[in-house]
Each structure stands twice: as structure tokens, then as C-alpha cells.
Amino acid sequence: MSKKRVEILIEALPYIRKFYEKVFVIKYGGSARKELESFCEDVVLLKYVGINPVVVHGGGQEISETLNKLRMTTTFHKGLRVTDEKTMEIVTMVLAGKINKQIVASINSIGGKAIGISGTDGKLIRARKKTTDVNLGYVGEIAGIDPLPVVTISKAGYIPVISPIGSGEDGKDYNINADTVASGIAISLEAEKLIYLTDTDGIMDKDGNRVSSLTAEQARFFIEKNIVQGGMIPKLEGAIGAVKAGVKKCHIINGKKKHALLEEIFTKSGVGTEICLN
């Protein structure tokens, strides 16, 4: 073994000790899909060194691609997909039937053990219809989370992989923003970390430079001053809500870079932006 590899292991050792048996909730987004194998290798390693990873995934891009192939029109309102009954069937098929199983299969193929579920399984996520100035159809928000199904899977030695679909009291299923679900799951599990994988190197300031660390108050300022926009807003909102509810730290990192997850967790410098309470 080379000296450099030994130094890497020694640098990681205090973090492995510190995070032993802690829960990490990791939001895996479509922007990182090209590095699925690398991501799964990172997750499996976390499990083997005694950390309990929980994966929450999205899939908006692949839902749009599938709808296009089926020649189904799709519209958005303030970034949210208007979801009628037929569209919800496709959403469920892509999220729970395709992406979820691809992640599970990849984890299993490299020596890990994963079980895929959606928020409808075991009444994990109770949902309600999201109310806005227009009818969004089957777009939901979190009404409550019962973490017992995730805890049971994790304690049995498996890695839970969760699709962001919840069940409403009306018996209908609802599609919920995956960033919001990841934050809610992290809060319910009293997680040590909430980690968002995205397609940028973290949060950028107004000059385009990466910000290595933000407090919840500073993160709120970035939203209010439109320094962050688009899909980064629900990630920062989720991070702010999580740290205020007791999650120790949140991280936003570039999931398109191989093994970025391990670099952020097990090195002093990190590669993304961390958000903490203060």
C-alpha cells in the first residue's frame, strides 16, 4: 500500500469513529445519475464502516423523458409539475418501479444489501394535497412521517432506498418534492447528516465562488436575496428546516464528481457547502 493511501485512511479514521452508528440521509438526484456506480460504492462503504445511510431519490428528468416518449403533455406551475391521474401513474412507475430498483440493484451488485420502498409502504409518509393558486392534481406535501419502516430495514443490515411518494387520507398517492422528503426523513430519524447531491460544487455566492459553510440564517439570506434560484431553493429550505429541527449538519455537494460523498465526509477540507444551525 502506498504512503498516500495510508495517509488517506488515517485522515478518515477520526471521522469513521465519530460517525459510527450515526444516520446519514442522502438525497440522490437525477443530476448525479451518470455516477450511479460510484455513488453506490460510497454508500456501501459507509454501511460497512458502521454508518447507517438512508437514500432518498428523485427523478423529475426521467419522468419528463418518459412522458415525452408516451406523447403525454406535461406543464409546470412555479416549478411544480401539474399531475393528473394518468401522469401520476407514470410518476409512480418511473420513481418506484424504475429508478428505485436501479439503485437497489446497483447497491446489491457491488456487495451491499438494499431494500427499495416508497413512502406509501408501511405508512412511511402521510401526504396531503398541496394547495396553491392553481390545481396541481396529485402533487403533495408531507403531513407526517413514521420512521419505523426505515429503522427496521436499517437495523436488519440493509440500506433503505426511498421513493418520494406519500399516501393521503383520501386513499390517493401523491408525488412529493424529493428534497423536502429527504429533509423530513432526516428530521424523523434524528439524523447526524442530511446530504444533497446536485450538479454544482455547492452553494455559490453572488460572484460565483463556492461557499464552504453557511449558518441557517445566512442560508435564508441567500434565498431572500435571490443569490440561489431554481432547484437549489428547496435544497436550502430543506437544509434550514433540518438543522433547526436537530439534524447536526447538512451538505450540498456535486454528485457528478466520483466519490464526492466520501470526500465531503472523510476529509478536513470537504468539497461542497455545509449548513449548520449557527
How would you summarize the topology of this molecule?
Blueprint: H1 3-18, E1 23-28, H2 36-48, E2 52-57, H3 60-69, E3 76-77, E4 80-81, H4 85-109, E5 114-118, E6 125-129, E7 140-145, H5 148-155, E8 159-163, E9 165-168, E10 173-175, H6 178-188, E11 193-198, E12 203-204, E13 210-211, E14 213-215, H7 216-224, H8 232-244, E15 249-254, H9 260-266, E16 273-276
Parallel strand pairs: 1-2, 1-11, 2-8, 5-8, 6-9, 11-15, 14-16
Antiparallel strand pairs: 3-4, 6-7, 9-10, 12-13, 15-16
Summarize the structure in words:
Strands 5-8-2-1-11-15-16-14 form an eight-stranded mixed sheet, sandwiched between helices. It has a four-stranded mixed sheet with strand order 7-6-9-10. A two-stranded antiparallel ribbon has the order 3-4. Strand 1, helix 2 and strand 2 form a beta-alpha-beta unit. It has 278 residues and is of the alpha/beta class. The protein is 40% helix and 24% strand. The N and C termini lie far apart (40 Å). Helix 3 packs across helix 4 and helix 7 (216-224) packs antiparallel against helix 8 (232-244). The protein has a single domain, classed as Carbamate kinase, CATH 3.40.1160.10. It has helices at 3-18, 36-48, 60-69, 85-109, 148-155, 178-188, 216-224, 232-244, 260-266; strands at 23-28, 52-57, 76-77, 80-81, 114-118, 125-129, 140-145, 159-163, 165-168, 173-175, 193-198, 203-204, 210-211, 213-215, 249-254, 273-276. It contains nine helices and 16 strands.
